[in-house]
Design brief:
eight-stranded mixed sheet; five-stranded parallel sheet; disordered N terminus; 19 strands
Length: about 725
Amino acid sequence: MRVLSLALLLAFISPLANAQADNPPNVVLFMVDDFGWTDWQYDAVLNPTGSMLYETPNMLRLAQHGVNFTNAYSANAVCSPSRAAVITGKDPARIRITDWIPGGNWQHPTLQDPSDWDVTLNDSETTLAEALQENGYDTVFIGKWHLGTNGSDAANPFQNGFDVNIAGGHRGNPGNFFAGDDRSFNLPGMASNYQPSAYLPDVLSSDAIRYLQERPSRNETDPFFLYMSHYAVHTPIQAPAATVQYYQNKLDAGGDFGEHDHATYAAMVHHVDLALGRLMDELEAQGILDETLIILASDNGGLWAAQGDPTSNAPLRAGKGSWYEGGIRTPLIVAWPGNNAFVQGVLCDDVIIGHDIYTTVLELTGTQGSPAHNASTDGVSFAPGLCGEQHDRGTTFWHYPHIADQDHASELVSGGTYLTAARSGDWKLMYFYADQSWELYNLSEDLGETTNLAGEHPDIVATLGQEIVDYLIEIDAQLPVDQATGEPVAPPSIDQLGLGDIDSDSVSNHGDVEIHLANSAADPDDYLAPLAEELRKTWPDNRTVNIVCHGHSVPAGYFQTPRVDTFNSYPHLMHVGLNERYPNAVINVIVTAIGGEASPAGAARFEREVLNHDPDLLLIDYALNDRGQGLERSEAAWREMIEAALERNIPMILLTPTAALRADLADPDDPLNQHAELVRALAKEYGVALVDSYAGFKQHVADGGDLLELMSHGVHPNRAGHDLVAQRLLCWFPSE
């Protein structure tokens, strides 16, 4: 699977390493936890994918001295596997550290995790620190390690090639970024007498500076390897109040910040950037900045739509815990300011993955490492890309036989459950074991991964899919386990792709849609006839007609959370259609929907926030979010709202749910289908109107369409999906 093994690279293509063998550079690996692709300062030349919210002059300074790799990836969408790949140069699946340690082990209806995946870094692996140590490097680790369980040797950087360890242990987050009342961070090698306001990124930064100033070999020729591994910007999202206020003021003043709007998160990024700046200033003060290779990287994409939702990875899809681009595409800046062979201030779109760092560092430092270890590494040196030369690592792979915490916890996060993925050129292929489905995206044309092209390009699926199968065999990957048999599931089968006939070029035309009325006792010809008569009146006899849309994130207009696209949501599209149909009417469409809300919460505020608008027509749309409430509790809430409206003689349209990518549209026992049936039954029982959105989405798929053509997100329709709903709503309004 590798272009060349590390051993072959070092033996045959290392003139740069040979030139540096007598004077190897210092190495600083500056790892930022959960740092997203767009989470640093925008600059038209140095970082065109960033946001103007952030102020990271030191990251831009580093980029000015080196290369910003815009197609860099972490080896996993969660932390421990990615860190294991960086420190060993091996694919996480090869060393069987495939989830964060100790893992979530979430329940799934049919599959389960392999029982024997490794929760500790095997001592047979030669770490990057051990390899550099053998080459005469002083080695120091500062920050987050997280490669073993509590008390294990694997959890101790001292046991993995580091001479110094400050703060590294089994923990994945510090619990509190402030020392607090106990004046301690409770991390290995750290003091216990800090001021309560002491902030961990600042403290670790000071520890790094102190090491550089006091290290034993400072006046000798030994180079150093500093692995500066920040716990930030992981949860808990905390930062000094003054910095938070600065960014809150900036947000309040307004600006083009994209979808970035979290002042505390921006403050965390700010302090990490300050730490980088202090480090570079110290290297410069000592006269060794030009002799130092600095690598800034992240272990996975930014945290989005889960665990506090502090950032956005847009235009990338999803975030941490997902193998869509937002979860694995990460910042990577590499600079060696004094090396004249390196280009500076350059963007590079070469594909890089985390384990390539190991291989590249060994090459650039002239370090041989362990031949036995190197024979099974998966990294490919990107040194040619640093020199402005052609570099192609070949097909890049990911494997995850688990359920990510973020995918489990948030309906908005998908793409993090039992999968294998590959990228080759512009094509990215994903295989999901739960339903044996394939997804194919052309990243050059569809960076947001909105359109599944698997049915349109079965030849690419077959070719790249076979590479996935070969990869799984070559690394002896652990596959998810079938609960029914207790045995690993079969690997993807190229002979049974099951792609179907998908026409991704067109979305069904909903202009002549057939309305589904079988479960509604209301007559579409006369149910809204009195309202239509009111809408036909002209001035001075007309009045304002209030139509209230009550529900969750879909009628609220959420597309890619937190972005709200009001003018492409179905309440607005219906409003436009009504205006065309009744050009003299004064129509007030009022949206009382709240993202993330289910029907019990909607019922609780129904009289106060819905009926107070004196609706002439009421739309209720909650079934998508009611799956977490259960049928009994949801039914009670729906009945409460329906009966309160009927007491006031308010006509209603009940809506079945729009689709969810993870729901099985063909399974009558799927919770989404059960809640659709509940809404149909209620519409029929109470004699009110029904718009069967769920049936419309199912029909689109049955007609050969791809569900992704109607979706902007795992649970949110796109403009075409909203249009499907709006057209069905308009069918209830008589034209004449």
